[in-house]
Amino acid sequence: MLGGTVGAASPSGEELLTVTVLKDEHGYGMKVSGDNPVYVQSVKEHGAAWRAGLRAGDRILRVDSIPVHHHTHQQVVQMIRANPSTVLTVQQNASRHKTPITAPVPVNAVGSELLKVPDVRKQAQLESAEQRPTLSNRRHLASHAPRTRTTKRTHPPAS
C-alpha cells in the first residue's frame, strides 16, 4: 500500500498518520534524526517516503506496530531497514497544513511587467546634455543676439 491513512488526533491535537513505505531502488528516500523521540529530518521529493505521505518534521511514533517513543535514532533506523517495506505511524508536523509562503509582489510591479528604475547617473547626463547648447543651437542663438560693434583702437606709441 502506498500512501497512508489519517487516524485519530493525538492528545496534543495533531493528526496521526499511518503509512506503508516501500523501499525502492533508491532506498526509503528519507533521513531520520533525534533520540526519544525520532523525527523525519528530510524527505526526498518523489522518493518512497514522500510517495507514502511522510514529510520533514513528522514525529515517528510506531515502526511496524512497535512503539518507539523511547528508542534511539539507531534503533529506529535498524527497525526500518529490517524489511523492504515498513509501516510507520507518525504524528504529522503541524506546519504541513499551513498556507504556503509565496514570494512577495515587487513594489514597482505593474501587471506582469516591472517598471524600470531610472539610472540616476544617466538621467543627470541627459539633463546636462540638454542644457549644453549644440552647434546648431549656438548658431541660432548667435543669429538672434544683439550685434555689438567692436572697434580697434590704436594707441600712440609711448614716448
What would your notes on this structure say?
The chain has 159 residues and is α+β, with helices and mostly antiparallel strands. The strands form two sheets. Strands 1, 2, 3, 4, 5, 6 and 7 form a seven-stranded antiparallel sheet that branches. It is rod-shaped and about 125 Å long. It has a domain at 4-96: PDZ domain (Pdz3 Domain, Roll). It contains four helices and nine strands. Residues 123-159 are annotated as: Disordered. Residues 18-87 form the PDZ domain. It comes from Leptidea sinapis.
Q: What is the CATH fold-level name of the domain at 4-96?
A: Pdz3 Domain
Described by strand count, sense and barrel closure, the largest sheet is: 7 strands, antiparallel
Query: What sequence of helices (H) and strands (E) makes up the elements?
Result: EEEEHEEHEEEHH
CATH class designation of the domain at 4-96: Mainly Beta
The assigned CATH architecture of the domain at 4-96 is Roll
Q: Beta-strand percentage?
A: 25-35%
CATH superfamily of the domain at 4-96, by name, is PDZ domain
Mean pLDDT: 74
What's the helix count? 4
Shape: rod-shaped
Radius of gyration: 39 Å
Rounded to the nearest angstrom, the distance between the terminal CA atoms is: 125 Å
The number of E-state strands comes to 9
- How much helix is in the residues? 10-25%
Q: Regions with pLDDT < 50 over 5+ consecutive residues?
A: 99-105
Q: Look at the helices and sheets and give the structural class.
A: alpha+beta
